Every structure is written in C-alpha cells, then in structure tokens.
Amino acid sequence: MTRIHEIKRPSKEEQRAALESYDALAATLEQINSDYPEIEIEETKERIKVPLTALKLLAKILKETSRGRPISIVPVATEITTQAAAEMLGCSRPHLIKILEKGNIPFTKIGKHRRIKYQDVVRYKKKLKDQQRELLVEIMKADEESGLYDS
Questions:
Q1: Mean pLDDT by groups of 10 residues along the chain of 151 residues
Q2: Domain 79-145, CATH 1.10.1660 — does that match?
Q3: What span, in angstroms and rounded, lies between the C-alpha atoms of 126 and 25?
C-alpha cells in the first residue's frame, strides 16, 4: 500500500543546486541520441546506463525543484486509500465515498476497504478542473453579452 506523505518545499540551497543541475542536464539531453545513455558517477567513477525517459523525468524534477516546488513521484498503477484520494482532491473522506459510489471514479473493494488507482484520481481531478474552466469561460461570455465589460 502506498501512502501519500507530507512533502517539503526544497531549501534555497537545494533550489540553486537543482537549477545548476537542470541547466547542465537539459543541455546534455539535447545532444543525446541513445535510448540508454551511459552516465558516470563522479565520486565513484562508476558508469551506468540510464533510460533516456528516466533522465528526462529527472530534468523535470530538477526544474520544478529549482522553482521551489515540492515533488512527489507515484507509480501510475499505484492504488491508494480513500483518505489519500480525499486529500488529493481536497475533500472529506465521506464526500469521496459518495463520489465513488456514484461511479465517478472506479475503485476496487478489498473486504471493507476501497482502493483507488492513483491515475484514476488524477484523471477525475483533471476532469473537474476542465469543467471549472469551461464554466468560467461560459460565465465570462455571459458577462460580456450582458454588457458588463463595456466601458
């Protein structure tokens, strides 16, 4: 079972180091033409092959860290508890249960416990954001049509 943990913001020192590393890695990624480039760990001189997709993910992590944003990595197929899903959506656990029971998010039940795929919660959250965006656009259009924005 995966738990969503408290995530800390990177320190200023971590942000600086991440920015320097991101700049170097981003420049290097533009020159790589292999799906499994070999990198060297300076301290040990050990050389390892790393999937290019993993290096690109590392670049994204460094970029966000340099901006002071906390990062969390969760495998896509991970199942989470109803409490963790509720925290992700910013709602109460009982409200999440209602969402699940309406069929808005798929889940499995193991005994009395419900488990939800992380990616399904992310998908639902994105759907909500998209709906909110559409509603805002509709409200703005209605305001314009009613002459609210005329000078």
A1: 62 94 93 91 93 94 93 81 94 96 95 93 95 93 81 57
A2: yes
A3: 30
